[in-house]
């Protein structure tokens, strides 16, 4: 099954859920074992991404609440500001654009959670502000940044994701900054997400957790295949959630 343009992973035998128009699969046997506990799922929501329409986020909320004991949506503002600056927006313009985009995503998520029966929807949205007071997240992030500095393989893997982001926005690039300079600014977003790829459970206080997104990046492929020095917790899974009619 083709998950992303350059990655081919056979996950058909690890499909564990169908409903609300989605088909969910664990990406490795280890992830499969974690997912079977159905304790928690974290769904990443990307700003300024047409995939995350109000209708799809509504379905995501209902699917998550029906499939797992608990769930969160992930919405990160501050790192996204750095991504926009890397594209070429001024700091002020990047912050304004990020605020508008993330506010729209949060509103959609909040309404979707209310529809799914969550009485306190804000408690199910994991934001940048909340993570800044989470000691376990901060510990994992510090470890990630330290590894990024000393581990060339990990740095190359993370910078590769930053470059892919920039290439996907090639027509919007402004200014004279080099690709290397842009990449080292854009990589901030990815580095701040990494702790949630490796040990969400310890951050949100559950026994296990699965990170959920509709695409599988090269970094995630190598991370969950345990090809990097940084490795996910035994309690961490990765799910690919696709529209059923897209397979």
UniProtKB/TrEMBL annotation:
Q: Which UniProt keywords apply?
A: Transferase
Which NCBIfam families does this one have? tRNA_cyclodipep
Its domain of life reads: Bacteria
Q: State if Transferase is listed as a keyword.
A: yes
The record lists the organism as: Nocardia terpenica
A single Gene Ontology MF term assigned here is: aminoacyltransferase activity
Pfam families, alphabetized: CDPS
Family per similarity comment: Belongs to the CDPS family.
Question: Know the name of this protein?
Answer: Cyclodipeptide synthase
